[in-house]
Amino acid sequence: MVIQILLYLIAAAAIIAAAIDLIPVWKSWFGRIRIGRYDDRRAWSRALTARGLAWLSRIPAVKVTDNTRLIALDMLQGNYTKSAIQHWQEAALLLGLGEYLRHNDDPAAREGIRRFLDSKLDGSGRWKEQPKHVDTAILAYAILSLDFIGSDRVEPAMHAVWELIREHLGTDGTVSYRQSVKGYRYVDTVGFICPFLVAYGLKYGRPECVDLAVKQITEYEQHGMLQAHHIPVHAYNVENRVPLGLYGWGRGLGWFAIGLIDAWSQLPPDHRHKPVLERSVERYAEAIMRFQQPDGSWRWTVTRGECRPDSSSAATLAWFLLGASAIGRISAECRLSAEAAIRYLMGVTRRSGAVDFSQGDTKDIGVYSTLFDVLPFTQGYAIRAVNRYLNTFHEKGEPR
């Protein structure tokens, strides 16, 4: 009898484990039925935003590993997802919804954002869970960018992020990705910290923060770019400037793009760093447009047309190009390239309004995910890009 009960328990555990493995597969298969049916940008924008707002209250978990078998064991061991990964998912959704609210009066969206902030900050404006990694800076930037949230409400949390960034300063005067890899500079860090540093520096009168953002960008341009093509490598060694990882990793292009464009866009016209970053924006825009595919996408390795397209690259680079279109000399080309990227993203959007086929989380320098699925980060930047596009060009009465 005892052996029989034990066998029943083992069988039940095996069935539960198999079900946990099969649920994500089934959800992806079902979600992709009739994918890419949106043909109106405003209807698509509404669907994206509704899905993004729903996710803000319960962010879908982003997997740490590419393991698709016995994932229950990853969950039990705490290896299924990590809070640092979730921070930039939340940040992107918040940035997208913030852009949407700049042009739309939506009390439900504002209330959803307030509930989200209440889950992160206490009544005195401090983090409920003290941040440990510089990834948090992009979330802090998203919070600081909200037009309807007073800066006094969040000031202690913003100061805490600045102190965290200072703790990651290296001997070269730039910021490391982690304390454990102080000798490397990652392209991700440009996107994580530079928009926050400029926003924080301007808001609280800290010019040294703006200087640091510009230094982080220009140092990466000097040491982390493929010279002839001006595309970033995943990371570089501070001591000997040796490149690490892949030149042309799609999301790496996106990380550099969002760090650069948001830093430049926030600076007032007469700021001493504005011309420097504007030249960087022009040079980078011209570089990334050369690698865009005919379908409007960028591959996960942008230099190889045989690779799979990555929606996170398309969403972040579309946002960059819309920002760069404010520069007269490259305005028309940037707009056309952004429009092509938006058409691609519409074509990979599920009926539910979720953008599909984003590369999963990177495991290490040079170790990239083989999974392509929905990603809240991509969703947020798609919302951000389409709302900027609709309200930059279509207010003039142009066709959809």
What's the gist of this structure?
This protein has 400 residues and is mostly helical.
Q: Which SSEs are present, and which pair or pack?
A:
Layout: H1 2-31, H2 41-57, H3 71-76, H4 83-103, H5 107-120, H6 136-144, H7 151-167, E1 184-186, H8 187-204, H9 207-223, E2 233-237, E3 243-247, H10 250-266, H11 274-289, H12 311-324, H13 331-347, E4 358-359, E5 372-373, H14 376-393
Antiparallel strand pairs: 1-2, 2-3, 4-5
Helix pairs in contact: 2-4, 2-14, 4-6, 4-14, 6-7, 6-8, 7-8, 8-9, 8-10, 9-10, 10-11, 10-12, 11-12, 12-13, 12-14
Provide structural commentary.
- With 400 residues, the protein is mainly alpha-helical.
- It has one domain (32-396): Glycosyltransferase, CATH 1.50.10.
- It is 58% helix and 4% strand.
- It has 14 helices and five strands.
- It has helices at 2-31, 41-57, 71-76, 83-103, 107-120, 136-144, 151-167, 187-204, 207-223, 250-266, 274-289, 311-324, 331-347, 376-393; strands spanning 184-186, 233-237, 243-247, 358-359, 372-373.
- The protein has a three-stranded antiparallel beta sheet. Strands 4-5 form a two-stranded antiparallel sheet.
- Helix 4 runs parallel beside helix 6, helix 10 (250-266) packs antiparallel against helix 11 and helix 10 packs parallel to helix 12.
- The chain is globular, with a radius of gyration of 21 Å.
